[in-house]
Fold this protein.
Amino acid sequence: MNTLLTASNMLISVITLPYVTRVLSVEGYGDVTFAQSLSTWLSALCLVGIPTYGIRECARVRDDPQALAKTVKELLSIVTVFTMATLSVFAACIYLVPRLRSLSCLMWIFLISTLLLSYGVEWFFQATEQYEYITIRSVIFKIISLIAILVFVRHKDDWLIYGAIIALVACANNLFNIARLLRTLSFKNLGRSNLRKHDKSLISFAALSIATAIYQSFDSVLLGLLSPNNIQVAFYQLASKLRNICWQVVNAIVGVLIPRLSYYAKNNPAQYTSLLQRGFGITLNLSLGMANYLLAFAYPLIVLLSSEKYAAAVISVQVIGFVNFFSCLSTFIGLCVLTPLDLERKLAMANMAGVPISLVANFALDGTWGATGAAIAVLIAEFVIFTIQVHASWKILRNALRLGDMLKTLIINVIALIAGFAAVALPLAEIPLLIVGFFIYGVTWLIVGLIVREDSAIWVANTALSLLGRQQIQPQKATKHKK
C-alpha cells in the first residue's frame, strides 16, 4: 500500500506539473505556490510535532479503546490551542501585510485549508495501521484533484481556481478523516484530560517538525516576501518539486531499510554493519546520480516539464540537485544510523542547527539572486545538517564504511557526468535527449563501476543477470578495518 501511495503521488505530480506550469502565467503559478508554502509552514506551527508524536502515543494504547480515545482527545485539544493562536495571527497579517493583502482571497482559501489540515488526524490512522483506507482515500482525492484541474484550469488567469482546487480538495480529504474518526472512537465518559503529560516528549517532536518546516517551506515564503512579485517563487518551486520527486525515490529505499536496521542494531551488529554498507552505497549512488543528471540535463528537463518560460529556473534546478544529494544522505544517516541507535536527540539538534543558517542565508541572498539565492540558502543549510549528523554518527560510520568504496562511487559518477554533458550536445528534441542521456549516463556508470568493481554496480549487474538466468559476478571481498 505504501508503494502504491508513493507511486500515485509521483504520477499525479508528473502529470499535473507540466500542465499547470504551461497553462498558468509564471506569476500566477508563483502566487499559488507561495500561498501553499505559507500554509505548509503554518501547519507545522499548528500541529507542533503531533503527526509523529501522535503515531507513537496512539500505537501504544491502540488495544484499549477508551485510552486511545482519551489520547486522541488530548492531542486534538493541544492542536486546537496552537491552531487558533497561529491562524488568528495569520488572519491579522492578511490585513496588515501588503503582500498578503494583495492576495487576500487566495490567503483566506489557504487559511481554511490550514485549519482543516490541523484536524486531518492522519496520525491516528497510521497508528492503527489503516493503510488501506489511507491509500484508497488519498488516491481517490488525488484523481479528483487532477480531473478538476484539467477541467477548470484552462487559461493563464485561472490561478485562483487552481489554488482553490489544491486547497479545498485537501479539505474534503480531511473531512472524511474526521467523519471516520468520530465513527471509530467514542469520546464520552473519558474523564478529565491531562495535557501536561505530553509536554516533555512533545517538545522534541515540535522542535524537529518546526525546524524542518522552516528550511523546507519557509524559504519559499521569505523569497516571496523579499521579492517584488512571486515569479521567483514559481522558479524556485519548480526546482523544489523536482527535488521532491527525486527525494521520494530515495525515501522509498530508506523506508525499507529502517525496520531491518533497527532490528539488527540491537540483535545482530555484524548484519547491521553489512546492511548499512550496502544501503549507504545505494543511497550515495542514487542521490549523486540524480544530482548529476539534473546538473547536466536541467535545461531540456525544464523545457519538457514547463516550457521555455521557466528557462530562468535552470540554475535553481542544478543547485537543488545537490540540495537533494545532502538531504538524502542526511535522511539515511538520521533514520538508519541515529534513530535505530536511540540517538533521536542528536537528529533533532542537527535539524535545529539548520534553522538560523537557512534564515540568515535567505535574508542575505533572496533579495538579490531570487530563486537561485533561495536554492543556495537551502543548500548551505542542508550541508550544515549533513555535517552535524556525520559528526554525531562518526564512530559508527567510521567502522562501517570504507573510504575506498566511496572513492570508487565518486569516480564512476564523475565519469558518468562527463558522458552526460557530452550527451547534452546531441541534436535531439527534449524527450529523446532525456532518454538517450539517461541511457548514456547509466551505461557509463555501470561499465566503469564493473571495471573498478564498485559494490552497487556489481549488485545492479547481478540483479539483471539473475533475471536472465546467467552466472553472477562475485563481489569484491571486504578488507578488515584497522583498529
Q: What stands out?
A: The CA atoms of residues 54 and 65 lie 15 Å apart. The mean pLDDT is 86.
